[in-house]
Amino acid sequence: MSTSRLVRLDFPGHSAPRAGFESPFEMLTACHERVERMLALLTRLRVHLATQGWDASAASAAVDVLGYFDRAAPQHHQDEEMHVFPAVLALHHEPMGRLIDRLKQEHLDMEKLWAGVRQTLERVVHGKAKSWTPWTPADHAGVDLFLAVYQDHITDEESHIYPAAVQALSEKQLGVMSRDMRRRRGQSSASAD
Known about the structure:
With 193 residues, the chain is mostly helical. The chain has helices at residues 24-52, 56-89, 94-125, 137-168, 171-184.
């Protein structure tokens, strides 16, 4: 079985632009770009497993996806729930309030979906070529749901919520947001991830 590099992260342009904490909405958008890259990697991993089977490249890709969604994604959701959503809710705009309610629920849904996808990826990480069991229809369905929820979620946040929050937050509030994001990640430098 040949080792394919299609599922690895070392392809041109794999890293999202570096955004600093001093520009929290640029950082949030850069995080979305990273999410999209991880979702694309998950999609390529699935194709790779179906066409080539398990190999070390597949295990490496699974480690990359696990690392991102275990660490960075929850921090990103917390940024939104602590700073972005409250700013928009303070505008008392009913349609935006309903959208935020839905986005908060999607954060919970993504967390639940991630638990299933995580188990599927753990099997890839700890797999062996001779004993590899292909993904089941339920595995594929869980991945499909996870991918779909994230894509729509990102679109709604970037199209509606972020622009409203940027308008609603003062420079002082943006500074507080920036410092909190940095503190929660244990970083003193100006760049994220």
